[in-house]
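lol ok so funny story. i was supposed to be doing the assay writeup but got distracted and ended up predicting the structure for this chain instead. priorities right. anyway since i did it might as well share w the group, maybe its usefull for someone
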Amino acid sequence: MLLFCRRLGPAGFLAAFVLTAPAAAEEAIATAGGTPPPAEAAPVKRFESVTEQSLEDAWWTGPMLASGAGTLPKGRWLVEPYLFDVKTDGVDAFGSLTYVLYGLHDRVTVGVIPTFSYAKVDGGPDGSRVRAGDLTVQAQYRLTQFRKGGWVPTTSIVLQQTLPTGKYDRLDGRAADGVGGGAYATTLGFYAQTYAWMPNGRIARLRLNTSATAARATDVRDDSVYGTPAGFRGRAKPGASLLVDAAVEYSATQNWVLALDLVYRHDEPTKVSGVAADGALVRYDSGSHDSFAIAPAVEYNVSPTLGFLFGVRVIPAIGGRQASVTPAVAVNMIY
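and the output, tada:
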């Protein structure tokens, strides 16, 4: 339990001064035949105890972006659908992303992450319909487990494979139909999670996600998400990327939690080469770039196994990167 000491007020400082006066003063009073007055009692420092919130009392949905380092107990399911709108200049890309995870073993969680998208474009053709994006499969292995009073956090390694199931080329002049990358991509991540007790006894949960992604080259035909024109024939090689996400959640009450993600991402150049419709050689790359994001959110937890999230991700226009604002809602369900 945490203890606080009340500060001494002015009377306390005065009492301290009197108690440190020279002893000659008392001798002078005694010599004059008087009785020295009783010394003023020293102020007593009072301590107030703060009751620490227990881990069982803290309910969580999770921040908007950072994933947990813990794994599900064997035989349990987690389903967490997100609905969002990626707002850029003149475009609203409505989408969904759903975590469907299963506890294969107490240390091993496996699952899939399907995505869907539909875009509305100002001054251009909208998406023809809601389309399925790329599908991600993942496996997570827990290395260590946090114990209260110890310094070791919960940690895990995560392996993800993205399958190119979303449409990415032959867009027929409708760029809003491009909802995939067209390339197989492998992501290796390391996740960490720990807890800290605040001076008021409430719990803060801290997460750190780091991951690196590498993708294979893919064939590209006609107009595509890589900016190629109609009639193009060639290949594209998405650049590798590195992502770091630090997140904190504060358990204001058992039901209400405040959350914040801070994200850094670095992307290596994506390279495209091929032949245009007129036979001219085409070769270019996107250049490397860095981006940053901040994502505040509020969680409302109905129970330890059911919670809701309301948040927004903001990516500022830095280094030529297009700015975006993405409001999102999510529901976290554990069975």
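The first helix runs from residue 10 to 19. Residues 297 and 311 are 4 Å apart (CA to CA).
back to the writeup now i swear
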